[in-house]
Amino acid sequence: MEKHVQEMMHVLLAENQREKQQVHPFLTVLHVESAMFFIWQVIDFFKLSAEVRYIAFDIFQRFMLGYTESLLDHVVSITAEGRQRNRLIKEMEKQLKEQAPLKATICVMIASKIVTHKTSLSTLMAQRCLKHLKMSAHINDIKRSEISILKQLDWRCHRTSSLLEYIGLLISVAGLWEGDGAYLAEMKRITIRPVPLEELYEMSTKLLDMVHLNHERVYQDLYTSLTGLAFIPNKHKTAFGKVVADRLLLAGSVVASAAFVLRGLEKCSTILQELSIPVDNQGHISMKLNL
Question: What is the pTM of this model?
């Protein structure tokens, strides 16, 4: 079991590093939470699983990264730096936000096919859901959009691990440490009631949902707490974009927060130490941002 967890950790560490390197500063201005909100609505409408939800969100992010880069490359190729380019970029941003609900819905449709054929969504079902959400789309538009998303992803729909897998792995790591008698002996002076791993996982997923539905505020507050600045200037977007893209940081923070909700500060600090996340004397995460 321990060997398997170590192997998975190496895989996710490498994957997480790739994701951070691929981040695009322009994507920080796009409203991730608005896309997530539509994904939530579609998931709730069809009573799909959390697994479908987070695979859909991964597909959406990867598509938007490639799609945005191709649009930006086109704008740069036909304009000189200045007002015209800035105007076209603003128009592009507006267009991307308007397309987000349809793209997000189709990403759920694709994710549902990955997870199971029994409850996978058809184009007709996607159209019905969009109508329920007060939006309209022709069947052919949905089909064309699905093909364009798949082509943009080079038909590799499930390339990355979902955030749920990161959370599950980190809880497994914490569980292995908790089973170590020597480690518990060092902590026996502190009375901490153990947290069942299933309970910790359930609370972690709830908090992960909350983070995504309040994505901009959470990361803006994090940036402000690190820098004292009320907004993210353009010169910092690339560096902070790597923080936003850091899935291990998010998953570890969510698991630690879940431990705090369930068992208080002592348990939270213990989990952070088990995951090798630096903490200060008050049990708060110690973090430095290199800008």
Answer: 0.73
